[in-house]
Amino acid sequence: MKSNSATKPFLLWLDLTHDRSVEELIGQFRATCDCRLAKPSTLPERAHEQQPDMICMHFDRPDALGLSLLLEVKRTAPSIPITMFTVQHSEELAVWAMRSRVWEYMVLPLSAAEKNRYLHSLQQLCELRRSFNSHGKKPLVERHPCLPDSIRLTSEHQKHQALQKVLQYIDQHFRESIDQKVLAQRCGMTPFRFSRLFKEVVGIGFMDYILNKRMDFAKELLDNSQMPITSIGYDAGFKDPSYFARAFKQSCGCTPSEFRQARRPGRHLAAEVALDDATAQVLDNLMLGVHA
What we know:
alpha/beta; 3 domains
């Protein structure tokens, strides 16, 4: 009768972590697998030596030396499949691993579902190897890889991704003139669909969003600068001082002068506010004269 250990998948582990932490990972597989820690020099090269069912290479932060070693292990023992366990993950690293023909590329830490899927595939692989050795037949191994996160994104996440670059652009250029139609074209949408999607994702309309950004910027300047109120309006993206005053009062319930006075009370500030108001009135009159 075969011992229980003889029926378990034989995993030969190579520790390529910087802090030599492979034992913790191996502990997750000892109950179902025959796990042995090895060095590259101990890889089985002769036919009479017991061949592992899998060579497991554990990385935390893969570097050029470790990845070169993986290729060398594959060259030395080409008939033994390799599983690459790694903490650091990137799309480029995953593509490299697949092109290097590793059998599995596993990102740590493992979820329970991912670990069970791996063990199921590993058991099938062992049966394949034994069947091949006995009968020369190769049964199919059902890998059932998990779907990538990018495919499993919810519709809500997809909507956020569609507008992410637009929101970044607005955050950087809200003080300038922004054409909604141009941004809609950048997203590959009609202006109507863009407007509806923007409000659905952000919670407010496109123009209200820009207005809020400008108001927040203006309030910051009112709080932390000595700039005249008219100049603050221009700097925040308002081309008409009168419109800035009306929009500010509608948004905040007070005029820019009242907002500044409430935040920074005092005689000196009151005089400054009065001067700003006078300047604003002069500029308003000039603007009326220009439009007349």
